[in-house]
Amino acid sequence: MMLTVLGASGTYPRPGGACNGYLVQEGETNLVIDLGNGCLSRLRMAVEFTELSAVLITHMHIDHFADLYPLYYALRFHPGKPWGLRLLLPEGGLSLVGRILGEDARAHLPRVFREEALCSGNIYQIGDVYVSAFPTSHPVEGYAVRVEGKGWSLAYSSDTGPTPHLVEAARGVDLFICEATLPASYQEEASHGHMTSHQAGEAAEAAGARRLLLTHIWPTFEPVEILAEAREVYHGEVEVAREGMVLRLGGADVA
Ligand SMILES: [Zn+2]
Ligand SMILES: [Zn+2]
Predict the structure, then answer these.
(1) Ligand 2 centroid – CA 189 distance (Å)
(2) Ligand 1 centroid to 200 CA: how many Å?
(3) Phi and psi of 17, rounded to 5°?
């Protein structure tokens, strides 16, 4: 399996960055998890949008779904009409996307995207991969996801404060992509539905995750400092997500 980081900036992009998005590729399966602003351009460097198996949006915050808009127009006006792309998102998500569109564009939305409600307790098969969703602790409905394929597993926190559901999602995974929006000293600010470096490290440690990838760092903070703080509490391999980063999972081929 190949994971490409499309975007890793928290809330708004760093210079040259993009907000959250990840591409999971296993055989013929191309699954996009979150598609924040700036991600579609980076996605197209890895795979064409007509080749996607599904897009999953973990929660309806702009920095996680903004590029659904350009994706919608790209699909809608493509000569081959590759409509009906599977779109998993929290209940009512597509109608929220449609609110700022004109009448005609809104009418096409459910043809271009085949909406599927994301909820906890279900297992979603997307080509060769399986996805399960776990509720987050965040101001809007959202889900951390666990994604599994042949011989590998990963979890992605989405945006969340500490919750036992997150530890459950990441239990024993090969790779845990976890938000670490803030430094450890910002625990009070993080209590509104985000994690500090220490909390991300603690969640990874509690889950027994084999490798930790920190993401969604607020752009005014230094990733190296967040990384050093996470290392104080997590004893596995840890690094910071960067746009364009590619990780391979499965078998011994972890690069
Ligand atoms: Zn976010
Ligand atoms: Zn959010």
Answers:
(1) 14
(2) 15
(3) -100, -170
- pLDDT at residue 44 above 80? yes
CATH of domain 2-248: 3.60.15.10
Q: Reduced to 3 DSSP states, what percent helix, strand and coil does the chain have, rounded to the nearest 5?
A: 30, 30, 40
**Do residues 47 and 60 make contact, with C-beta atoms less than 8 angstroms apart?**
no
- Decide: 145 and 131 in contact? Cβ < 8 Å: yes
Distance 206 CA to ligand 2 centre (A): 23
What totals of helices (H) and strands (E) does the chain contain, helices first?
Answer: 9, 14
Q: Is-contact 177 241, C-beta < 8 A?
A: yes
86 CA from centroid of ligand 2 (Å): 22
Cα 61 to ligand 1 centroid, rounded to whole Å: 6
pTM of the predicted model as reported, rounded to 2 decimal places: 0.96
Residues sharing a CB contact under 8 Å with residue 65, sequence separation 6 or more, in sequence order: 34, 35, 36, 57, 89, 93, 97
| Domain extent listing, the chain | 2-248
| Contact criterion met (CB below 8 Å) for 255 and 18 | no
Helix 197-207 with 223-231: angle, nearest 10 deg: 40
pLDDT tens digit string along 92-109? Answer: 999 999 999 999 999 999
Query: What is the DSSP-derived secondary structure letter of residue 70?
Result: H
Separation of CA 66 and ligand 2 centre (Å): 12
